[in-house]
TrEMBL record:
<feature type="compositionally biased region" description="Low complexity">
    <location>
        <begin position="1"/>
        <end position="18"/>
    </location>
</feature>
<protein>
    <submittedName>
        <fullName>ElaB/YqjD/DUF883 family membrane-anchored ribosome-binding protein</fullName>
    </submittedName>
</protein>
<feature type="region of interest" description="Disordered">
    <location>
        <begin position="1"/>
        <end position="25"/>
    </location>
</feature>
């Protein structure tokens, strides 16, 4: 059977199942989809190790941050204990230092307030 352009519709071995080339289009779509799938697989294979490395780095940094926070907490505790001991051993000196510090702070705030 010949159509108007002189080609035979559905000729065996041409890859076309109809005169409009739907079968050939399906083949092209299948090839493009297969290539896209292969590309996605390659990208995923490369991204997996990178994501894992990033996750490990984040975990390491988190552990280091917690360790530093613990050390700062211990240092703070040490300073507080030291200050308490000094106040117990030298109560009058501590009171005088606190009074002078209060006056200095009051002077700073009162002079900056009048400007």
């Amino acid at each position: 059977m010949e159509n108007q352009t002189g080609t035979t519709a559905g000729t065996p071995g041409t890859g076309a199942t109809t005169s409009n080339g739907v079968g050939a289009t399906d083949d092209v779509v299948d090839r493009v989809a297969a290539r896209a799938h292969e590309t996605i697989d390659r990208v995923a294979a490369k991204a997996g190790p990178a994501v894992e490395k990033l996750r490990e780095s984040a975990s390491t940094y988190r552990e280091q941050l917690h360790a530093k926070a613990d050390r700062l907490g211990a240092l703070e505790e040490q300073w507080i204990d030291s200050a308490r001991s000094y106040v117990r051993e030298h109560p009058f000196t501590s009171l005088a230092v606190a009074a002078v510090a209060g006056m200095v702070i009051a002077k700073i705030f009162s002079s900056s307030h009048h400007r």
